[in-house]
Each structure stands twice: as C-alpha cells, then as structure tokens.
Write a structure and sequence with these properties.
Strand order of the largest sheet: 3-4-11-9-6
CATH superfamily of the largest domain: RNA polymerase II/Efflux pump adaptor protein, barrel-sandwich hybrid domain
Structural class: mainly beta
Number of helices: 1
CATH topology of the largest domain: OB fold (Dihydrolipoamide Acetyltransferase, E2P)
Number of strands: 11
Helix content: 10-25%
Number of domains: 2
Strand content: 25-35%
CATH architecture of the largest domain: Beta Barrel
Length: about 160
C-alpha cells in the first residue's frame, strides 16, 4: 500500500508528538479513516539499576573517607540509532565534559527511523565522559554519557 507523502508527513508528526508527550494510547477518527496507536512505555527509573552504577574502589587505610571516589552513572541508549550531541548542525552541544546536569535535562539525541529521540538524565550530576561519537551508530544499551551523581546534603 502506498501512502501519499503529505499523509506520511502528518503521520510521522503525530508519532513524534505522541512519543514526546509519552502517550500510551492515541486514537484519531475521521470519515473514511481511523488510526489507533498504542505503546508500552517503560517507566523512567528513579534509582539506578546495579548495572548502571560502577561501585567505587574501597578507600585505602591511609586515605581519609572524604577522599574516596564517587560512583558514576552510565546514561545508556534505549534504542539502536545514530548519536548526536547537538540539537541541530552547528548548534552548541547539549552537554560537555564538566557540565552540571539536572534531572530531566536532555543530554543528547539518538535518531532512529528518522525520529530524533531526546535522551534525558534521570539524575543530577556532573558529566565526566561522553564515550559515544557524534554521528556514529550506537547500540541499544550502549553508554552515551557518564555522570558523577550530585550527592545531596544530609539534614
């Protein structure tokens, strides 16, 4: 079945809108046409899974506790696609090594099937590494950005 280009563009825009709004279900009905979209959305984790946090090395007996290294958190690609550090060609990167990141902040894009998926951080912290390469294919689960989490002050 061939879909007219104008309809295809509108459908792609609807799919992007539904995904960015994290809609689980969307229906459109018009005379002679109906569309129903259902997705299964994985909840965003509030705590890092054990595979996402690298345990710090135990402090040596002579090193003070304050000098012990912090854990890092890997922000991984949720899908296979092309990695982009910028929102558009020539624009500034979302993040650089050393930048402070807030929870919910976009750190990069992964393009899959002509859809640009914003990858957001579920943690606040400082960017320590960006192992993924601009414009290169990344696999599902591949590390895109590494964060040193911000430790909240205890009251």
């Amino acid at each position: 079945m061939s879909i007219p280009l104008e309809l295809k563009d509108r459908l792609e825009a609807l799919f992007r809108l539904a995904k960015s709004a994290r809609l689980a279900e969307f229906s459109l009905r018009q005379p002679g046409f109906g569309l129903s979209l259902k997705t299964v959305l994985a909840p965003r984790p509030k705590e890092a899974a054990p595979s996402q946090i690298r345990s710090p090395a135990p402090p040596s007996a002579s090193a003070p506790a304050a000098a012990s290294p912090r854990s890092t958190i890997d922000i991984r690609s949720p899908l296979t696609g092309v990695f982009y550090r910028t929102p558009s060609p020539g624009a500034a990167p979302f993040v650089e090594v050393g930048d402070e990141v807030e929870e919910g902040q976009t750190v990069c894009l992964v393009e899959a099937m002509k859809v640009f998926n914003e990858i957001v951080s579920d943690w606040a912290g400082r960017v320590t590494a960006i192992p993924a390469q601009e414009g290169k294919l990344v696999a599902d689960g591949e590390v895109l950005v590494v964060l040193e989490p911000r430790l909240e002050a205890a009251d």
